[in-house]
Every structure is written in structure tokens, then in C-alpha cells.
Amino acid sequence: MHNHLKIPQSHAVYPGSFDPPTNGHLDVIARAAAIFPSVTVAVVVNPQKGSPFFTLDEREEMLRRCTSVYTNVSVAHFRGLLADYVRRIAADVIVKGLRVVSDFESEMSFAHMNRSLANVDTMFLMSDSSYSFVSSSLIKEVFLQEGDIAKYVPDVVLACMQQKRLAHGRK
Ligand code: PNS
């Protein structure tokens, strides 16, 4: 799909809440997997955005199932500072996805902070423009109001979301 020259020896970390993983996340993972010899998709244990819809185990499991086609992608989790995690696993670069220009504003200060804390660079990959409006929070909102989210998440994630709704005794 992507014809990139791989950056030799580098280990990239793609961090996020992934609550849930979306097709936009998967697009960034596909791009990162084509560029870096090794990619760790790292799920933050406690997303800053309130209580998570999916547990940590569920988020990791969905990501594992969605990324099983990539031999150079693994899934892990971290708690605390991303900068400490990057140092702990001796990663070389942080990968972040950008959808729209406004994403860049906060990402730029995160990148500077992470470089200041751990001397690590952040590389930004632009997700496909068709995902520019897709976010985990919007997916959850549409889903919880009975909207159709099939276009925006992997099949595995859609099934897990439907299961979660059944477990809560709703439609
Ligand atoms: O998918 P998200 O919620 O946009 O991901 C945000 C994430 C996990 C990348 C960010 O919140 C993070 O790095 N959290 C770990 C705590 C930390 O290091 N905070 C300082 C960031 S400079």
C-alpha cells in the first residue's frame, strides 16, 4: 500500500487512548508500520478524558486483533508520563497522527515537552483526509445515540461496541 524507505533500526511509539481504536488510528498505524522497522502502539492506562468506555484490556485486545497483519507492530500499555515510557523501552521516536491543522497546536507543545523530558523527537503522520473528522469521542457519541459508525471503525471494534451495548442491556 505504501512505498516508503524504512528508517533503519528505529523503534517508534504510537501512543493514545484508543477508546476505541478508529479507522483513522489504523491508517496512522499502517503508515508508521511502512516507515519504521518496529512500532509499539502504546495504550495509555488512564485516559485523561474521563472514565473510559473500554477497559485497558479491551482496548489492547482490539488493537492486537486489528494490527495482527503487521509483523512489525506490537501493542502495549503505559501509565504515567509518555516520556518516561519512551526512555524505559528505549524507543527512538514518538509517532502522532494529525487530522486537521488545529491538532497541531496542542501536539506541538506535547512534542516540545517530550523532547525536553526525554530528548525524543515526535514525527507527525497525516492520516488520510477521509478520516479528518473521525475521533474516538465522536464515534462514541454517535454510537450511543444509535447512529451508524460502521464506516469509521474496524469490524472488530464495531462488534465489541455492539457487545458492550448488549452487556448494558440496551439495543
Ligand atoms: O489518544 P489521545 O487521548 O489523544 O492520546 C493522548 C496521549 C496518551 C498521547 C497523551 O495524553 C499522553 O501522552 N499521556 C501520557 C501522560 C503524559 O506524558 N503527559 C504529558 C504529555 S507531553
Describe this structure in words.
The protein is of the alpha/beta class and 171 residues long. It contains 6 helices and 5 strands, in the order βαβαβαβαβαα. It has helices at residues 23-35, 56-66, 82-88, 101-118, 136-144, 155-167; strands at residues 11-16, 38-44, 73-78, 93-98, 121-126. The chain has a 5-stranded parallel sheet, sandwiched between helices. Strand 2, helix 2 and strand 3 form a beta-alpha-beta unit. Helix 3 crosses helix 4 (101-118). The mean pLDDT is 94. Residues 15-17, 44, 47-48, 81-83, 110, 113-114 line the site of 4'-phosphopantetheine (PNS).
- Average the pLDDT over all residues and give the rounded result: 94
Helical/strand content category = alpha/beta
Cα Rg: 16 Å
- The poorly predicted ranges are none
Bound molecules: 4'-phosphopantetheine
- The ordered string of helix (H) and strand (E) elements is EHEHEHEHEHH
| Count of individual beta strands | 5
Q: What is the 3D shape? A: globular
Tally of helical runs: 6
Main sheet strand line-up = 3-2-1-4-5
Helix content: 40-55%
Beta-strand percentage? 15-25%
Gap between N and C termini: 38 Å
- Report the major sheet: 5 strands, parallel
